[in-house]
Design a protein that fits this description.
By secondary structure, the protein is α/β, with parallel strands linked by helices. The chain folds into 2 domains: about 5-15 and about 90-214, HAD superfamily/HAD-like (Rossmann fold, 3-Layer(aba) Sandwich), CATH 3.40.50.1000; about 20-85. About 45% of the residues lie in helices and about 10% in strands. It is built from 9 helices and 6 strands. It has helices at about 15-30, 40, 55-60, 70-85, 90-100, 115-125, 145-155, 170-180, 205-214, and strands at about 5-10, 105-110, 130-135, 165, 180-185, 200. The chain has a 6-stranded parallel sheet with strand order 3-2-1-4-5-6. Helix 1 (about 15-30) crosses helix 4 (about 70-85) and helix 5 (about 90-100) packs parallel to helix 9 (about 205-214). It starts with a strand and ends with a helix.
Length: about 210
């Protein structure tokens, strides 16, 4: 058997949200004459701004304090507009169906909010594939801490060592390893250049994963 349970990250794994979010931040930086290289931005992927903050970085670069409430609202409009026609990442539904057919439980484990994750899962009709949805606020700490993954294992009544994590970020990989779980990486456009050598496997996409689990 592949694993006793499979735990999926959300952003960049189930839906390609990461690129639109990065593009929105890049536009914000460029509007103020600054650049935001992917190599720098990826520090916060899979976690939150406690890991690394683009807001603090832009203020450091410009020596200016911004009205982030207004800027955040405008950036969210841009992100939602860019994602309006997005569906699940290619191949992910086939993987979820295969796990369901084999009786392997699946969960979503995300550092994002329930409002964001649950809304997308409902919109895309993916909720029924998951036995648990664990998000920011369901455990004391988010990734790269292991708390969210451990909470998912607890809810599923699984030994963490029997769980397989599907991730796209270093923060997610580090969280999985800290939880004592195996981790496979499916990089996206934002994270493809990162060093995932500590993962058990790095996959080219979900088609490769589907072949592995059948």
């Amino acid at each position: 058997m592949l694993a006793s349970a499979v735990l999926f990250d959300f952003d960049g794994i189930l839906v390609d949200t990461e690129w639109e979010i990065y593009q929105a931040w890049l536009e914000t930086f460029q509007e103020h004459g600054q650049d935001l290289p992917l190599s720098l931005y990826t520090r916060c992927i899979g976690s939150d701004f406690d890991a690394w903050s683009p807001k603090l970085h832009l203020e450091d670069l410009t020596k200016f304090k911004f009205d982030w409430i207004q800027m955040d609202e405008r950036r969210q409009v841009r992100i939602r507009s860019g994602l309006s026609e997005h569906g699940p990442i290619d191949g992910v539904v086939n993987v979820l169906k295969s796990l369901n057919e084999q009786g392997i439980p699946a969960a979503v484990v995300s550092s994002s909010s329930h409002h964001w994750v649950d809304g997308w899962l409902e919109k895309l009709g993916l909720v029924g594939y998951f036995q648990e949805i664990v998000c920011k606020g369901d455990a004391p700490r988010i990734k790269p801490a292991p708390d969210l993954f451990l909470e998912a294992a607890r809810r599923l009544k699984m030994d963490p060592a029997e769980c397989l994590v599907i991730e796209d970020s270093l923060n997610g990989l580090n969280a999985a390893k800290a939880a004592g779980m195996r981790a496979w990486i499916v990089p996206n456009r934002v994270t493809v250049g990162l060093d995932f050598s500590q993962a058990e496997r790095v996959l080219s996409g979900f088609a490769e994963m589907e072949q592995s689990i059948r």
